[in-house]
Write a structure and sequence with these properties.
heterotrimer, A alpha+beta (about 80), B alpha/beta (about 230), C alpha+beta (about 750), A: about 80 residues, alpha+beta, 3 strands, C: about 750 residues, 7-stranded mixed beta sheet, globular
Chain lengths: ~80, ~230, ~750
Amino acid sequence: MARVVVDVMLKPEILDPQGQAVQRALPRLGFEGIADVRQGKRFELEVEGPVDDAALSRIQEMAETFLANTVIEDFTVRVDS
Amino acid sequence: MTARIGVVTFPGTLDDRDTQRAVRVAGAEAVPLWHRDKDLKQVDAVVLPGGFSYGDYLRAGAISRFSPVMEPVIEQAKAGMPVLGICNGFQVLTESHLLPGAMLRNNHLHFICRDQKLRVENADTSWTTDYETGQEISVPLKNIDGRYVADERVLDMLEAEGRVAFRYLDGNPNGSLRDIAGITNEAGNVVGLMPHPEHAVEPLVGTGRTDGLGFFTSILKKLVNA
Amino acid sequence: MTLDTVKHAAETPDTDQPWAELGLKQDEYARIREILGRRPTGAELAMYSVMWSEHCSYKSSKVHLKQFGEKAPETDALLVGIGENAGVVDVGQGYAVTFKVESHNHPSYIEPYQGAATGVGGIVRDILAMGARPVAVMDPLRFGAADHPDTKRVLPGVVAGIGGYGNCLGLPNIGGEVVFDPCYQGNPLVNALCVGVMKHEDIHLAKASGAGNKVILYGARTGGDGIGGVSVLASETFDSTGPAKRPAVQVGDPFQEKLLIECTLEIFRENLVDGIQDLGGAGLSCATSELASAGSGGMRVELDTVPLRDSSLSPEEILMSESQERMCAIVEPGKVDRFLEICEKWDVIATVIGEVTEGSQLEIFWHGEQIVDVPPRSVAHEGPTYHRPYARPDWQDALQADDAAKLARPANAEELRAQVLRLVASPNQASKAWITDQYDRFVQGNTVLAQPEDSGMVRIDENTGLGVAVATDGNGRYAKLDPYAGAQLALAEAYRNVAASGAKPLAVSDCLNFGSPEDPAVMWQFAEATRGLADACQTLGTPVTGGNVSLYNQTGEVAIHPTPVVAVLGVIDDVTRRTPVAFADEGHLIYLLGDTREELGGSAWSQVVHDHLGGLPPKVDLAREQLLAEILISASRDGMIDAAHDLSDGGLIQALVESCLRGGKGARLVVPDGLDPFVLLFSESAGRAIVAVPRSEELRFTDMCGARGLPATRIGVVDGSDIDVQGQFSVALDELREAHEGTIPGLIA
């Protein structure tokens, strides 16, 4: 079965409190040099049948309407090889 | 003399003042500890209270676990100092590996706030001697990441060693494995649980019951008699 | 792009400016030019446009709102009145309480979770800015039909947002409402209330005075959140096809807000601020102009010192940004170091961004160049005032003539029983535990009563037992039938709820949710409702201390029901005397207080059984409400009653079922002579409550009611595990519980 990965990230202009909290903690733990952290979600979809354009466009639609909230989030769809 | 019980405040801790009150209601002295403190001000025991330290960002308890105050807490807990972790405090204890397992999002994915019935399974820990083993108590439960998980081997070990300290009764509120609401370490000095005994120490507020007061009277007796 | 400086603006009077896109009318733009004696800079235009928006300037509503001041009853209890972030009420023993209810309706429709979350955050900062520790929140919510697919999107998001934010702040959520009606489809109402407590001497005001004092911005960094949100989102109907420039949704960070609360309280404890203002709608534009306007007038701000999350923001965007979790304080120079130290302790970013000046202008600079030079009052307080035309709609008569009395009633006892079960299982009357169990009601350890009690009550002094109670109520159906009476009924219900818990009602906050003020019918509803509320507050002696107006809650031509939501704050000297709703003791006698008339217009019964809205709402009798409240408070204080529950939507049967289920005990009811069983159970006559009286107290209680002229009718006894209406029907508590508690999880979960 083929795997398609959907990564969902907050849009760049949207505040990401979780990423910020992680970033602020890093220096205390001795991890220097990280300018910014943003936290996202990764969905791994196991696809039945071929991952063709039709399947990808269905997944695209699924991501747009369901997996991501496009008011505040962007997403990318890619085939995991 | 009375016992000095430290109550740690992390950024985002919510129940620190309530826990201090519970300590006072039981008759002990509550000593506020700050997450940046590097020493424990000679306290006899420590409570890590509930809340959303660091917003529960990354994982509940994951960032607090690295606070300066946790170094002496971990060190002294290993040496036998009594430590109680309530809710977020329990999560900090599992992240610190003072207690086994981890807490995940509730199986129904919602925050849940309710009066929760528990059975005390181990009345020999530092924090439970004022209860009877098998006693049923009701205290508030309020969390979103309260589902206790550990692998089968750990769960079997906890059961075999009598280290399941509290079990949910009348319905598992969050999908915790084996209905586990709280556990203790091998020595019985470190106890963690998700429900909130500090919200059940006065008859008029919270649930209207005082079933949680026993945690604080237990530790006071232990420390004063020591 | 070149910077549009004040100098540049003076030199280029004919530059075209996007005033219309920013929501300003032509005459408003002309007035800005007149005030400044030149065209505004881009930054000035941004400031005026947000501050003169409906949301910030109350331009359509303020001619009506001024009645709340003009008709304010004489009272010693009010320490700070309308106009500040929130009113402040004296509750005795040196304590002052501040509370306010506000709307976050449109943002919650677009992004339910963040919209509701930031609504909680905003009202909490308002309360904090008064100098108070926030001690409780409540959320009156209204959604479309419970079975509508969009309700399944909006409701869980709103509830999770309120819980996600409020729970993380450590504020107990102790009450509120959840109402469903198709009229709110597309326009859900998300109102949020916060209560805070302080000592009298800790009251802080939003004013900047004392030349040389520093202006400190602290809290979160400024990003592109909700730029233009105030003017675009709150002022015009949201339309899914546009506008092209969709404003970024504000995202809340409750963890940051919790730090801000603790940090600010520590700063107050050390007496380090002269004036303070939270940043909410209109962000820095609002905070700087309001602080300067309320103070001596002059302020200079170096805008490029504002810490940014997004370095590409323009000065106009920084001024308009609605990034959450920010506050602005005025601090004497000698106290700045200590102020910054406390912020550092709490990991809160704090920056001196300017200072109070000798002058009278608000001056803002960007890398040394002046981009704003305005009289602050003209921005903050002297916005436009509209006298919008209003007219009683032509359909009002027909609506009122469509009397609910003509509706078919249950033909026999069996039908009566079936309708009781239908009523208590209907979405509006069903248990809301699925929702309220997602809120922490125990945190802070002072919660004495929380939903589903008549009011939320928290203890504010551990030693004396002093406490405060708050209830919020609103009934859009009543207000649609008669907005004047509807607003008064909302107040009467909240007032009654507070008294039923044993607390003395002191003050009012309101959130007035209406459709478009450009529709004369809507404007008439608004005028009538404010007049009704102001009149009733005057009669009951409970001043309006502040609140919020939300207009444009409509889709196309269709407005929501006029929905004034009223919050009443009460005080109780000793919380151990509080009265719960639960009928928990067998043998206690059930008394019905007040008069039951045949009043079914706008009732829950007419909605549930007949899907009908018509006729007139129940009659308002404020003198009776006062008498009832006095009796309920006396009876509580003197230990004559063990439980009380106000009667409102759903009538007697709804209240009885709730009291019985809460206490786990049944009741035997006898229909009093001369009353029709159906009317007894379903009428919604106001000014009523049921109480549980121990037999030992019966004589004392009835003597008191008799002496003071309050009708008190013994209608039954707490007993068994059924509700049994003699000669009519019997229904087991278990069956009622299943009907009452199964509905919401079945619809939403």
